[in-house]
Amino acid sequence: MKPRILLLRSTYEDYLADSLLHGLRTVLGSNAVDFPKAEFLYSNYPESFRQSLYGRGFTLYLDLVDIPVQRSRIDDRLRMNEFDVVLFADLVRTSTELVRATSMAKQSRIVLVDGADSNQLYPQPAIMRAEPMKSLVAMRIALSRRKWTYFKREWTAEASATDVVSRTLGWLRPKSIHAIAFSIPESKVRDEAALVKIPKRKDFPSHIVDPEVAAHLGAQTKYAFENEAAYYDDLASSRFGITTKRAGWDCMRHYEIAANGAVPCFRDLHLKEATCAPHGLDETNSITYRNVDDLIQKTQRLSESEYAALRRGAMSWVRENTTRVRAKQFLDVVWPTWEGQA
């Protein structure tokens, strides 16, 4: 049976919360209820507003079909235990709702999704500042009486084990952690038939986020394209795409590069811990480099067969990281009896 999921979210764009909603809606239909409604995810959102969205609204936004979803009387429906799962999809921004929602939804499973760029575990200092100790204690008591699940994107072994919050409030921490990462709509992953029509005209794209590499190649570090199609075509016509760690390791750019048939070149990827998103990028589907000289050497010495193998690996990787696949992985953890064939 498909679970009924209430996805409580903030009013801001958030790649993790929004890509998870995209996948859950794809798999569960109207059983996935976003509240408040993520207006900018839907295809009927005004195109004229796209430029004001994070990342100019490329890839994830204005893509989801806006089907009828019942969003009224949420509090009453929580009290009536209408939802099997109550999902806090953007934990740092929605933490103030935890005590209130959990006190109403007595039988729902509680799921916390932590997409913060920091590797600090819940409750992060941002939550500590927003919530007095009384509320934090109430949160933990409310959760301790429930079956709840915690997902973390920037999850490392260190997990800020030395910070004051961890040392003094360790009892507030989750007892178990599940990995999660960004994902990309399957409609944005090009198939081979489309890619063969776009010749590889150059090694690197016009938009390069690594300042050292951009300076060496004379490329732009800022947005180079006004529309998504031009950005995708530039990637598709390039042999490689450049990506780096920014505030956190995970970034939609990794997925966009692979989805458009280029091989991701990821600066210092070897330093990322296995528990931390993105997952599955390795020497079979990407290139890790330390500086511009290392990048140029590694890309230039690839044979055509080696390049083709990396490219195939990147395409396989991104197909395993669509929003549909991520939603199924999520459901396998929080609701194992769901209809997995959906």
Characteristic terms for this protein:
342 residues; alpha/beta; 2 domains
Description:
The chain has 342 residues and is of the alpha/beta class. The chain folds into two domains: 5-182 and 323-334, Rossmann fold, CATH 3.40.50; 190-319, Glycogen Phosphorylase B (Rossmann fold). 35% of the residues lie in helices and 11% in strands. The chain is built from 14 helices and nine strands. The strands form two sheets. A six-stranded parallel β-sheet has the order 2-1-3-4-5-6, sandwiched between helices. The protein has a three-stranded parallel β-sheet with strand order 7-8-9. Helix 1 (15-28) crosses helix 14 and helix 4 (98-104) runs parallel beside helix 6 (133-144). The longest helix has 16 residues, at 304-319.
Kindly name the structural category. Answer: alpha/beta
Radius of gyration: 21 Å
Q: What order do the strands of the largest sheet run in, or round the barrel if closed?
A: 2-1-3-4-5-6
The average pLDDT value, as a whole number, equals 90
Mind summarizing the main beta sheet?
6 strands, parallel
Number of helices: 14
> What best-fitting shape do the alpha-carbon axes yield?
globular
